[in-house]
């Protein structure tokens, strides 16, 4: 029996075991398999391992998407986590190539995937509070928001959760150094039913302006001298 003789349910089941590239390659072989590739039921979950993967034409976005994960664990993530004023020209060029990639993708999610239930972002150092705010507004059914090592996330995201996260049940802001204890306490007070986790976040050294850091360094040196 040829694969195209299988019914649609069987083909969808087979496709579900394949990665995005394999699905795309098989879809190029005939019209029937292309139709299976384009079936919304196949794209209720999307998992990406780098910003570059978001640019590939090997997946579909639509109202069927329920779970989205963008987790970047490469050593290059460390470059994105450096404060902008501390980056050298090479590091700035590296970041410039993808700094808007994840944010633009999430804004596309806001417009095309209103039924999103869970979002996980790890190592996405250029994602901002405004981006998460828009997502919370446009995806009212979001139940799980997990952010790890997203350095531009601040208490503004936590405030957005209290205002627009009516369906939220789980919130993680692990290793987000610009989240404060005061912001976390506000979420606990206003959203007591949300399972909140913030590993290391409020205990890390937050970003600050170069002048302020210089003053802190001078004060530290004086203390050492004393």
Automatic annotation (TrEMBL):
One of its GO terms (cellular component) is cytoplasm. Residues 9-48 form the F-box domain. InterPro entries: F-box-like_dom_sf, F-box_dom, F-box_LRR-repeat, Leu-rich_rpt_Cys-con_subtyp, LRR_dom_sf. SMART domains: LRR_CC. Keywords: Ubl conjugation pathway. Pfam families: F-box-like. Signal peptide: none annotated. This is FXL22 protein. It comes from Bombycilla garrulus. The gene is Fbxl22.
């Amino acid at each position: 029996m040829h694969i195209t003789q299988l019914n649609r349910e069987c083909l969808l089941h087979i496709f579900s075991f394949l990665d995005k590239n394999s699905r795309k390659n098989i879809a190029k072989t005939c019209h029937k398999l292309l139709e299976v590739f384009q079936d919304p039921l196949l794209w209720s979950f999307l998992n990406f391992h780098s910003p570059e993967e978001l640019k590939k034409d090997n997946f579909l976005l639509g109202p069927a998407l329920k779970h989205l994960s963008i987790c970047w664990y490469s050593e290059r993530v460390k470059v994105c986590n450096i404060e902008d004023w501390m980056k050298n020209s090479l590091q700035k060029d590296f970041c410039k190539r993808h700094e808007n990639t994840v944010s633009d993708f999430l804004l596309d999610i806001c417009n095309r995937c209103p039924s999103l239930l869970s979002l996980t972002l790890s190592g996405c150092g250029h994602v901002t509070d405004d981006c998460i705010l828009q997502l919370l507004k446009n995806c009212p059914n979001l139940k799980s928001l997990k952010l790890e090592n997203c350095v531009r996330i601040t208490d503004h995201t936590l405030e957005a959760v209290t205002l627009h996260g009516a369906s939220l049940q789980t919130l993680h802001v692990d290793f987000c150094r610009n989240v404060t204890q005061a912001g976390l306490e506000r979420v606990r007070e206003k959203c007591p039913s949300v399972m909140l986790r913030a590993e290391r976040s409020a205990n890390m050294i937050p970003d600050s302006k170069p002048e302020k850091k210089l003053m802190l360094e001078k004060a530290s040196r004086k203390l050492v001298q004393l």
